[in-house]
Amino acid sequence: MGGRAGRKNGKHREEREARNARSKAYINLAHELAAVFSAGVYTKEDLQSAVCSFVAEMKQAGETGDNVVRSAQSLAAEVGARFPESGNTGIILGDLLTWCLAEYYRETA
After folding, report:
1. What are the tens digits of pLDDT across the range 66-81?
2. Which pTM was predicted?
3. 109: in domain
4. Is residue 39 part of a domain?
């Protein structure tokens, strides 16, 4: 009986840790997107790093590639809606999608 409860608590702890990590990555990506949309210019490496962290955390939590992309697009739309659209919006969203897919399907050594 004790072993079973230990496994259950271990699984819940892992799920909670995955949610917390994903939440941190989500918050970081939201922050980077807000900086991008508010300034209209951005440092590619900072945004790409935030996207890759977000994707890696979601993938680690067992999310599918489709769910990861949809979540990133939804977050970008949610954050972007607070700012006036610029000519760079399409480029930013295209980069976001490209980086999501590349990171999700990247082979790890």
Report:
1. 999 999 999 999 998 8
2. 0.74
3. no
4. yes
| Structural domain of 51 | 2-104
Mean pLDDT, range 27-56, rounded to an integer: 89
What is the C-alpha separation between 19 and 29, in angstroms, rounded? Answer: 15
What is the domain count for the chain?
1
**Residue partners of 16: CB distance under 8 A and separation at least 6:** none
pLDDT of residue 34: 92
61's tokens: 């939590």
- Tokens 């769910």 found at: 67
Token readout for 45 is 């490496």
Q: Alpha-carbon distance 101 to 98, whole Å?
A: 5
DSSP state letters, the chain: -HHHHHHHHHHHHHHHHHHHHHHHHHHHHHHHHHHHHHHS---HHHHHHHHHHHHHHHHHTT--HHHHHHHHHHHHHHHHTTS---TTHHHHHHHHHHHHHHHHTPPP-
